[in-house]
Amino acid sequence: MSYSSYETLIVERRGPVGWLINNRPRQLNAMSSRMRDEFATAWTELDSDPAVKVIVHTGEGRAFQTGVDMTELATDGLGMERYRESVEKLDLHFTAWHQKVRKPVIAAVNGLCAGGGFHFVADADIVLASSDAQFFDPHVSAGQVVAFENIALLRKMPFEPVMRMALVGRFERMSAQRAYELGMVSELVEPERLRERAGELAKTIARNSPAAMAATKRALWGALESGLTDACRNGADELVSVWGHPDQTEGPQAFVEKREPRWVELAPQTPPVGE
Fold it and tell me: A single Gene Ontology molecular function, please (predicted)?
């Protein structure tokens, strides 16, 4: 499968791992309107490529992602109004979660992560960070409201440090070590090994059943949207959804025969009615 041509991103596959790399290093990978649109295409292409089993998201240069491009906001005459319709409709199609990406997503945070960059931290299934990474939210320092990104972070970490980060704005940065202690990040890696480690982890995950992992993602993320009993009911539905799937037979058979399983690829997604 060949990917689209991108101006602000690098999108490629290496073995079973799809790489989505923010590529505006001179702007600290701030998200222009062009990058926002390219994200939506990139997530879809990587999720649709049957050869991609896991997606790693990282950035070029000294920043992972630093939110919306403030220069564009200040100079193009449109400001945030260009995003009004998508925000009011909760059409956050540039992220992994709201795009309903079925494959495991690893965010490998290199350097600075600020503001809208937290979308990609909150929506990733697993987050690694370089030991020199720094996190801060400058929204209120630029007259903007903190909402989606930090609301989503509340699913991963305690309330008080999220609120503190929202209210302090650009005047205080959270270290990678503190982010790890609070559960925003599950592993710290020396900067020069970040991509290597993310690739290793992705390849390990890629050895598992794609169908089982997709159902697992739906079950666990879905649990954050509902109460315990409803979450268990939904989890039961996902559990039995793969009963009868070829991977259910292949997994035990491969174990007995002491070989790598031959998993069935994910079936193409069916677009929602009306699209």
Answer: catalytic activity
